[in-house]
Write a structure and sequence with these properties.
It holds the Pfam family GGDEF. InterPro entries: Diguanylate_Cyclase, GGDEF_dom, Nucleotide_cyclase, Rev_trsase/Diguanyl_cyclase, TPR-like_helical_dom_sf. By secondary structure, the chain is of the alpha+beta class. It is about 65% helix and about 5% strand. It has 23 helices and five strands. The protein has a five-stranded antiparallel beta sheet, sandwiched between helices. The longest helix is centred in the middle third of the chain and has 41 residues. About 0% of the residues have low confidence.
């Protein structure tokens, strides 16, 4: 018996929605899931439907809805202590964090998804798809080796449930690996992987095991080989049609058409196509359009422009490496904090004390933390920090971009705080910093680091034409019996641009 068969309600509807998603038709799956959610009274059915709906929103690129959807999913899954649901939720959450350009949170979800799925006792179809979705998340976040390991796990679990290995071919994992090699200068390695994908397509055509959602991936692999000057027997243009309604399919079709235009000897036309329709940086990585521009320029004989485009692609790759390096440092800090938390289990609250958008502690967690300080008779510097220009961001670029700015600022604050300091999202664009034992000198130093870190962020790319800054004010808690409310009021009254 499969995992879905344990549900009390709507099993057939949920199975049908799942098959639609597997075939790349998430827009058709959404109304089915919404109907289930409107009718069901069973907590497990509700949690499963919310998880699958979250995945559909990710597939459709509806980024502005992800924070609300994630909050609903997290609440529902907490009520149903099931490792499969938790693993599937975190796999989708990693993809959602990737769409929101939040690498550190994405990595956290990857680890949580892997641990939860490894704890699932059943080896059924749903669990196999959970491993498949985790493999996709690993791949999109750039962890290609881990993605291959997870997809092998999907095949192994799927085989136990009677599914053919071809069901979990996952050519997108190897395609992203191939273009990543090319972005790093290893074009020969890229071509080797693309040839393997082409050979796999021929095998699957012979056995009639091709999933519709994979069409655009195979088409792009063929077109990318052609753009690099290596013709193929299969017709890439045919494979770039159909394949579902996901953002991935749309972008692969457009970039595939660009590649075929290069192969046809029309590099100027290909450049125009690249500039006409922007594509998501999440599908094949931010360097891919720059690399295609380089190939266009080289094909046109403009080697200086080709070199400049390649340098830009390399710079984007280096930025990703820097993010991973920062994430490694943050991971070490988190491990140290976890050890400290084990020694003092009352210091931090549970997941209900987290802000779902930024991942920071929320107002309630802040109050608990400061209450603990005051109970122990400790003093601390308290800072109130808000975003200058945030209202303009929401008006000019929309709430989705506002959310991205909040997440970016949250990352800046968490990165520059001293070990043992506390940062929370208080309300709206307002953050509160608590520095135990710190005086005015330490508070000023932290404020300087925050200002410097925020100043080097590339706000022009995120919210073009809208300058972003921070305003902060400081006070003390515990001094002269001052409580949190009084300290926050005094800090807010002294706010000034950092």
């Amino acid at each position: 018996m499969g995992w879905l068969d344990q549900l009390a309600e709507h099993v057939d509807d949920l199975r049908r929605a799942g098959r639609l998603q597997q075939d790349g038709r998430s827009a058709r799956a959404l109304p089915i899931l919404d109907a289930v959610l409107a009718d069901t009274t069973d907590p497990t059915t509700r949690a499963y439907a919310l998880v699958q709906r979250f995945g559909a929103l990710i597939n459709l690129g509806r980024v502005a809805e992800l924070a609300t959807a994630m909050a609903a999913v997290a609440e529902a899954v907490r009520e149903v202590p099931d490792p499969y649901l938790r693993g599937q939720m975190h796999a989708f959450a990693a993809l959602g964090a990737h769409l929101q350009s939040n690498l550190d949170r994405g990595v956290t979800h990857l680890v949580q998804a892997s641990r939860a799925l490894a704890a699932v006792p059943e080896r059924d179809e749903e669990t196999a798809w959970g491993w498949h979705d985790l493999a996709m998340a690993y791949s999109y976040l750039g962890f290609h080796g881990q993605a291959l390991t997870a997809i092998e796990q999907a095949r192994e679990v799927g085989a136990s449930a009677g599914l053919a290995p071809e069901v979990f071919a996952a050519p997108g994992i190897r395609l992203r690996n191939a273009v990543a090699l090319d972005h790093q200068g290893d074009t020969d390695g890229c071509l080797r992987v693309l040839r393997d994908i082409d050979a796999e397509l021929s095998r699957y055509l012979a056995t009639d095991q091709l999933r519709p959602g994979s069409r655009a991936v195979y088409g792009y692999a063929l077109a990318r080989r052609a753009a690099l000057g290596e013709p193929t027997e299969a017709g890439a243009a045919t494979w770039l049609t159909g394949g579902g309604d996901s953002v991935r399919t749309r972008d692969l079709q457009h970039l595939g058409a660009v590649c075929l235009t290069i192969a046809a000897g029309k590099p100027e036309r290909a450049l125009t196509m690249l500039e006409a329709i922007p594509v998501s940086a999440e599908v094949l990585g931010a360097p891919e359009p720059a690399r295609l521009r380089s190939i266009c320029h080289a094909s046109a004989g403009d080697h200086a422009a080709a070199h400049a485009a390649d340098r830009y692609a390399f710079r984007l790759v280096a930025q990703r490496v820097d993010q991973l390096r920062d994430g490694y440092l943050d991971g070490v800090a988190a491990r140290l904090d976890a050890q400290e938390t084990q020694r003092d289990p009352g210091r931090y609250g549970d997941e209900t004390l987290s802000d779902p958008l930024t991942g920071l502690p929320n107002r309630r967690a802040l109050e608990h933390y400061v209450d603990g300080l005051l109970t122990r008779g400790e003093r601390a510097a308290v800072g109130v920090c808000d975003i200058v220009g945030f209202t303009t961001v929401n008006l000019r670029h929309g709430r989705h971009c506002g959310d991205l700015v909040l997440q970016r600022i949250a990352g800046v604050l968490a990165r520059v705080m001293r070990r043992g300091d506390f940062v929370a999202r208080f309300a709206g664009d307002e953050f509160v910093l608590v520095l135990p034992g710190a005086g005015p000198h330490h508070a000023a130093e932290v404020a300087r680091r925050i200002s410097a870190a925020a100043a080097v962020e590339n706000w022009q790319v995120l919210v073009p034409g809208t300058p972003i800054g921070l305003a902060a004010g400081w006070s003390e808690v515990g001094a002269n019996g001052r409580g949190l409310s009084a300290a926050l009021a005094a800090a807010a009254a002294s706010r000034k641009p950092t």
